[in-house]
């Protein structure tokens, strides 16, 4: 049964001393292990047939967030996060029920169907609490504060997140998913609400003092700052320790860094490639590269990779990358595109370039707005093609053996044993008549009899098995995938979250710019320029000189802003600046470098901690955000501080501003303890530390526009010449394109031979 108890944090990632943190919390609240069971149930969700007649919309009907709109017809008196809700809680002296999620969150859909659509629960919530609904992707600041509380007091976290607050926004009880009724040892939401109402009446002082103590403990435990005079830790030692920690967690058979569930973790892969680049001749360097390339190959072969409609799903529920959680997130596509094109650069293997292009094909087709922006996500759940009102995990993506046979019945001329196209396809992609999903990956039977495509054999082996040429089999498989893609178009599509976030659009800008530059693909570069133009037109408030967090696709397919536009957070600035630098390097159009410099100035003004170093995740002057956090972990997305460490260094070399190089050092010093003890938590920041240590090279090409990094074209009144007077002294030799390789603008002798330039760069 539910009870109130003193609890200590058991989270292995918690930076709060568990011996000092005591809080009244609900035992039995959900944790992240529950969230990992995202293939369960799936019978609900957004877009399911509405009740008849549909209830009139609540306040959320005025919002633009797809997640908030999913709750607009709940029998709950929801408020968006804002002053109106805070004032109501104070004037009526009621506790706040804060519910946080996002539109493609499976268990958020479950809790909505089971609890928030329940009339009795809706009345209890509305009569006794001020109910606030938050889209975590719109308000990551709110999400981070209260998720820090939930993780510290319950030992885990996940979404939906359910937290109860005092009228002054201090949390006193938290959890994640609650079923409507008690289930075994798990308390139901009805029980939880009853107990909280009783405690609010009978034990309020203890609840409030508990919330106060927790917040004060979290303020101390999450503080990140450099000591006076502190410098960054030794890059060589930190990088080696990060490599050792990653190697220890590496799973050798299928790649990746844990058994299951298994996440792509692009930040790990990018670090390993950087580590290899400065340790090429060592055993450790070779091992780092092998770990990276093997992981990327196995992911590309696995079911986490959509072999029919391209792109990557969120994560794999098993160790072999076979059965995914089928949600597709923009930030995954962006980072994986960069990881795959980087692998192509270091290995020369065409398969990596093909996968990078494959990812961008998916994003261009399915996640792109005509304005140039990118949508946030595609849901895992959808209605089955065979009919029915209950959504199922992966229904849009999976195949029955009989479907494949019906679609590909033609006997292939010359194939061994009179094999059909279906025989060859099913052999290659592991399709079985009875389905290929193990029960362990399908605890609720949603995928029974279904197949998730996974490459089981190389094209060469498949060709040999059926006595065909490699070219013939490659053509056959491509044709089959195209036919299956057409079938998919007739299936009920999963929900598309058409919210456009500045941060994730910045990541995707980098993806198109980097891939376009490496492949010399003008169409991809034009798409990158279009994305940058979208960011400037729709998510940059020129009057207030701030980034905006989000905008939305309207009913008429136009771009809309919310009722109260949300000011951008640190990641909105950091990711966009990185994207602009990548775009400048790809196009040599100085307007993007100039805007990147302007945004960095604004980021410094809004988020920099002048006392302790590093950047706060959100506006440190906002009184409604109780913790001033500096994200100290590179997870599904890199920490904005990690990205900023490299942004500052790159900008200092492009603009000659030494203060930014110094600021990068100060940022790294602030995270010195974390970098020294557990660098595996910050692999992207370790890359920034390495870049500071090994010194970036400046490559100046005089005379022609179709080269990289710096173009010195003689326009002495131009942006770069004003920032870097040294460029005026760098000239063409003998009328030919001339390269200068410099460090801190001390340049080697000019070269006009490409092979000589290559030699200089490899030294």
UniProtKB/TrEMBL annotation:
Signal sequence, renumbered to the chain: none
A Pfam family: Thioredox_DsbH
InterPro entries: 6-hairpin_glycosidase_sf, 6hp_glycosidase-like_sf, Ssp411, Ssp411-like_TRX, Thioredoxin-like_sf
GO terms (BP aspect): carbohydrate metabolic process
Polar residues bias locations: 35-49
SUPFAM superfamilies in the record: Six-hairpin glycosidases, Thioredoxin-like
Name the record gives this protein: Spermatosis associated 20
Organism whose genome encodes this protein: Oncorhynchus kisutch (Coho salmon)
């Amino acid at each position: 049964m539910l009870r109130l108890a003193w609890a200590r944090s058991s989270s292995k990632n918690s930076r709060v001393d568990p011996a000092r943190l005591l809080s009244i919390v609900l035992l039995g609240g959900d944790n992240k292990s529950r969230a990992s069971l995202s293939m369960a149930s799936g019978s609900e969700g957004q877009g399911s047939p509405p009740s008849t007649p549909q209830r009139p919309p609540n306040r959320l009907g005025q919002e633009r967030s797809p997640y908030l709109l999913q709750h607009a017809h709940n029998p709950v008196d929801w408020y968006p996060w804002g002053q109106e809700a805070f004032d109501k809680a104070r004037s009526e002296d009621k506790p706040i029920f804060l519910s946080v999620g996002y539109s493609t969150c499976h268990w958020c859909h479950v809790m909505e169907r089971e609890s928030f659509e329940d009339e009795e629960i809706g009345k209890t919530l509305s009569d006794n609490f001020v109910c606030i609904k938050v889209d975590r992707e719109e308000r990551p600041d709110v999400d981070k504060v209260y998720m820090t509380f939930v993780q510290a007091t319950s030992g885990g976290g996940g979404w939906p997140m359910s937290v109860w607050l005092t009228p002054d926004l201090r949390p006193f009880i938290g959890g994640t998913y609650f079923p409507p009724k008690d289930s075994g040892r798990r308390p139901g939401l009805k029980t939880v609400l009853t107990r909280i109402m009783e405690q609010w009446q009978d034990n309020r002082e203890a609840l409030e003092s508990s919330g106060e103590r927790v917040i004060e403990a979290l303020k101390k435990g999450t503080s990140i700052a450099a000591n006076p005079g502190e410098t960054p830790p030794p890059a060589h030692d930190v990088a080696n320790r990060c490599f050792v920690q990653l190697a220890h967690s590496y799973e050798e058979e299928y790649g990746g860094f844990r058994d299951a569930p298994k996440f792509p973790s692009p930040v790990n892969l990018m670090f390993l490639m950087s580590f290899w680049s400065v340790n090429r001749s060592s055993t450790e360097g070779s091992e780092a590269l092998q770990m990276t390339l093997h992981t990327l190959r196995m992911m590309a072969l696995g079911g986490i990779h959509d072999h029919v409609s391209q792109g990557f799903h969120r994560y794999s529920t098993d160790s072999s990358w076979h059965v995914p959680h089928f949600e597709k997130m923009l930030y995954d596509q962006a980072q994986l595109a960069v990881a795959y094109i980087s692998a192509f650069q270091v290995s020369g293997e065409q398969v990596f370039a093909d996968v990078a292009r494959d990812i961008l094909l998916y994003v261009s087709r399915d996640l792109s707005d005509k304005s140039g922006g990118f949508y946030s996500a595609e849901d895992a759940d959808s209605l089955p093609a065979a009919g029915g009102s209950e959504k199922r995990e992966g229904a849009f993506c999976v195949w029955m053996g009989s479907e494949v046979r019906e679609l590909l019945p033609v006997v292939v001329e010359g194939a061994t044993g009179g094999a059909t196209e279906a025989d060859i396809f099913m052999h290659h992609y592991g399709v079985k008549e009875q389905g290929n999903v193990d029960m362990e990956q399908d605890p609720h039977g949603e995928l029974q009899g279904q197949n998730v495509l996974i490459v089981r054999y190389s094209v060469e082996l498949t060709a040999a098995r059926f006595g065909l040429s490699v070219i013939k089999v490659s053509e056959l498989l491509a044709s089959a995938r195209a036919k299956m893609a057409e079938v998919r178009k007739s299936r009920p599509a999963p929900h598309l979250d058409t919210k456009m976030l500045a941060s994730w659009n910045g990541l995707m800008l980098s993806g198109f710019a980097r891939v376009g530059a490496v492949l010399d693909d003008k169409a991809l570069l034009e798409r990158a320029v279009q994305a940058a133009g979208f960011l400037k037109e729709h998510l940059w408030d020129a009057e207030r000189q701030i980034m905006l967090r989000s905008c939305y696709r309207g009913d008429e397919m136009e771009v809309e802003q919310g009722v109260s536009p949300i000011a951008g957070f640190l990641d909105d600035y950091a990711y966009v600046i990185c994207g602009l630098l990548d775009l400048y390097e790809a196009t040599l159009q100085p307007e993007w470098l100039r805007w990147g410099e302007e945004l960095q100035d604004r980021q410094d003004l809004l988020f920099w901690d002048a006392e302790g170093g590093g950047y706060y995740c959100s506006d440190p002057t906002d009184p409604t955000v109780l913790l001033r956090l500096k994200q100290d972990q590179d997870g599904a997305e890199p920490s904005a501080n990690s990205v900023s460490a490299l942004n500052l260094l790159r900008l200092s070399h492009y603009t000659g501003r030494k203060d930014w190089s110094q600021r990068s050092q100060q940022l790294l010093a602030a995270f010195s303890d974390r970098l020294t003890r557990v660098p595996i938590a910050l692999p992207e920041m370790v890359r920034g530390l390495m870049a500071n240590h090994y010194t970036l090279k400046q490559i100046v090409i005089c005379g022609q526009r179709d080269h990289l990094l710096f173009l010195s074209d003689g326009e002495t009144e131009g942006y770069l010449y004003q920032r870097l007077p040294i460029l005026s002294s760098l000239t063409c030799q003998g009328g030919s394109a001339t390269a200068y390789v410099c460090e801190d603008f001390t340049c080697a002798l000019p070269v006009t031979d490409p092979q000589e330039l290559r030699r200089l760069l490899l030294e």
